[in-house]
Amino acid sequence: MSLAPRHKSVAAYNHGAMLLHWLLALLIIAELSIGYLMKHYTVLPDALSSAFYQSRFTFYQLHKTFGVIILLLALIRLSWRFLYKPPAELPISRVEQVMTNIVAFLFYALMILVPLLGWTVSSTSAKRLPILLFDNPHLVWPLLPPQVTLVSHLQAEWLHAVLAYSLVFLLFLHICGALKHQFYDHMPIIARMVPGRGLRAQPASKTAFLLLFLAVFCLGAAVVYFGFARVHQDQTGQAPAQAIKGSSATPGAALKNPKPPSLRPAAL
Q1: Interhelix angle 56-83/46-54, nearest 10 degrees
Q2: b vs e for 183-193, b when ≥16 Cβ sit within 10 Å of the residue's Cβ?
Q3: What is the pLDDT confidence band of residue 1, given thresholds at 50, 70 and 90?
Q4: Is 12:200 a contact under the CB 8 Å cutoff?
Q5: d(C-alpha 97, C-alpha 95), whole Å
Q6: pLDDT of 171-198, one tens digit each?
Q7: What is the per-residue pLDDT for 241?
Q8: Which DSSP string do the residues of 42-78 spell out, in sequence order?
Q9: What are phi and psi of 132, to 5 degrees?
Q10: Which CATH number applies to 15-256: 1.20.950, 1.20.58, 1.20.120, 1.10.10?
Q11: Structure-model confidence comparison of residues 48 and 132, the more confident one
């Protein structure tokens, strides 16, 4: 579709911004879905609900792992934004520009705050369960020391949940706004974040992009490798949490081997 004359000067984001945008989008949607099912898994069919309950510890660790990755990628995305300013705004009203900037600011804030609060929840819990990246006992993410946790466990839990639901609302607003600009205003909003869609891309250093791509590739390779390692451990009957050094009992054993009289156990 050819661009209207007033859109001829519209530029796309650079490829580094595109890569981080879609990667974070996928991770956030997956993270929010897992987080919701962790508390409301009884909405699933009985067979899936029971399977989810039996693997609850693994899903908690996967949720924490995604949170750590989102936090790191959000910091990289913020740094990339400072390094390469976004292309000029589309020709929209002043009110829409202000709303767009507010939503973008809140997105960055929540992408950092929500994982930090989740980290605080784990660090202030009385159980002090370790954060096992990819549920692997050899990849332990450290808990926060007590002197840097500014809120209590209950406060952190409440804030984590409220801000996570706020992130869902922002995501809904963002998608609705993009669809409105694309199909009602007939502006190439989606093409700005998709390579090879007829818009000239914002210039960026090839070296910086290659380094970013390499980092993302290594992260993806780690996800695949440790995912297969986790499946192999399950097949060989090895419980990853039992291998943690210095532990006389399996952390979270009650979660890994629950004995539910029903599918509605008490919340963690």
Answers
A1: 80
A2: eeeebbbebbb
A3: very low
A4: yes
A5: 5
A6: 999 999 888 888 888 888 888 888 876 6
A7: 45
A8: GGS-HHHHHHHHHTHHHHHHHHHHHHHHHHHHHHHHH
A9: -100, 110
A10: 1.20.950
A11: 132
